[in-house]
Amino acid sequence: MYWRRLHRRCKQVIEGLPLPDPFTVEELCTRLATDRGRRLELRPLPTPTVPEMPTGIWLATDSGDYVLYDAQTSPLHQEHIILHEIGHLVCDHRSGSGDQRLYRQIDLADAESLRQALARSRYSDLQEQEAEMIATLVLERAGRVPSPALLSGMLGGLESAMGLSGAPRERTPCSRG
Predict the structure, then answer these.
(1) What is the domain count for the chain?
(2) Is 167 domain-assigned?
(3) pTM (predicted TM-score)
(4) Distance of CA 36 to the CA centre of its chain
(5) Would you list the DSSP string of 35-65?
(6) Which residues contact 94 (CB under 8 A, 6 or more apart)?
(7) Is 170 inside any structural domain?
(8) Does any domain span residue 141?
(9) Mind listing the pLDDT tens digit for each residue in 129-142?
(10) Are 173 and 14 in contact (CB under 8 A)?
(11) 95: which residues sit within 8 A by CB, 6+ positions away?
(12) Does some domain include residue 168?
């Protein structure tokens, strides 16, 4: 039940995104920046990355937003990391009690005005699950990864018995906070 509601919420969020066709992450960022009236820059994380460095970070400053990503991975993984951070941005997620010193090590012209810092961390957190689901759904919609196939046989029966398929669609906004 929880995963179905999460999927619906995230699907509604991406329906409101200005997804380009053909899809590129760069064009999506350009459109989001225009729609939001704020700069949105993609930057690779400093290399070499240190062990405690996350694979993706969203930083919000007074003058704009920055999405930092691990450039030492495959192009598809880079897209997923970037879209995950964009998921945080479009849901207006808030940072927790992360180590702010890590974020301040990244060279930004306006680092002193850092207002928000979210990094990929624990996937048990609702914000992380929403961001991860948004990234996956955008990649599916863009045709970068296949949509999950319908289950049949015993697995399909279990899915149905658990209430994971065939339910009417409900619309709820992306959760805040």
Answers:
(1) 1
(2) no
(3) 0.73
(4) 17
(5) HHTSEEEEEEPPSSPPTT--SEEEEEESSEE
(6) 116, 118, 127, 176, 177
(7) no
(8) yes
(9) 999 999 999 999 99
(10) no
(11) 116, 117, 118
(12) no
